[in-house]
Write a structure and sequence with these properties.
Elements (H helix, E strand, L loop, with lengths): L5 E5 L6 H12 L2 E4 H15 L6 H10 L2 E3 L5 E3 L2 E2 L7 H10 L3 H15 L4 E5 L2 H5 L5 E6 L2 H14 L6 H17 L12 E4 L5 H20 L2
Parallel strand pairs: 1-6, 1-7, 2-6, 7-8
Antiparallel strand pairs: 3-4, 4-5
């Protein structure tokens, strides 16, 4: 049986990579893994346990022992509890950004992510998939959008969940997280040299997925020709 492809989707928060990634995985019959949710789950665990977000050793120890599962359909399970909704608050998102800068934490998480995706047939979404987790991924995408557009999407998402939020505050937090993610020492957010760039500022989901599918088909044809 032919091994499925490993597809990496990187990019900043709110660019639409998770939405497109899920749709792509559904069309291909692949598993979708939102690695950002893993950092959010770890951040939530740290907040609940009272672990300081600047204590790298304690956070790494927590990352090594706390069970985090990404289940089909998008459910995120933290130590047996469904935290899919709980991890999507602004507070947890900000905490996740602080947790993810620590090299020791990222090493634990990257090891888990490699284990999850090593069999192939996976669409993996994150910030360092194509550069650190699977630098030899069969297909790589870098999905981006203007910070204001990303803030508008996040504001709408929170409103749909009944959560009040200020648009300007969301945009400021997005820009702050972009800076933190792109300047951290370990696995910074950056576009892989061989990644296909998709700017979704004015690009709708159907067109994004269409372009992704075209790239995947090209990769499949290239593999078949070997």
């Amino acid at each position: 049986m032919t091994r499925g492809l490993v597809i990496a989707i990187d990019g900043p928060s709110g660019a639409g990579k998770s939405t497109a990634g899920r749709e792509l995985a559904d069309r291909l019959g692949y598993v979708f893994l939102d690695t950002g949710a893993m950092y959010r789950a770890l951040a939530l665990a740290a907040m609940r346990a009272g672990v300081p977000l600047d204590d790298e050793a304690a956070l790494a120890a927590l990352a090594a022992r706390v069970p985090i599962e990404l289940r089909p359909g998008g459910a995120v399970i933290l130590d047996g509890e469904d935290v899919t909704t709980a991890i999507r608050t602004q507070e947890v998102g900000s905490a996740a950004s602080r947790v993810s800068v620590h090299p020791a934490v990222r090493r634990h998480m990257v090891a888990r992510q490699r284990e999850m995706g090593r069999a192939g047939g996976v669409v993996m979404d994150g910030r360092d998939i194509g550069t650190a987790v699977f630098p030899d991924a069969d297909v790589k995408f870098y999905v981006d959008a203007h910070p204001r557009q990303r803030a508008l999407r996040r504001h709408e998402e929170l409103a749909q969940r009944g959560m009040a939020a200020d648009l300007d505050t969301i945009e400021r937090e997005i820009r702050d997280r972009d800076h933190a993610d792109s300047t951290r020492a370990e696995s910074p957010l950056t576009r892989a040299a061989d990644a296909i760039h998709l700017d979704t500022t004015e690009l709708g989901l159907p067109e994004v997925v269409r372009r992704m599918m075209a790239a995947v088909e090209t990769a499949r044809e290239r593999r078949s020709a070997r």
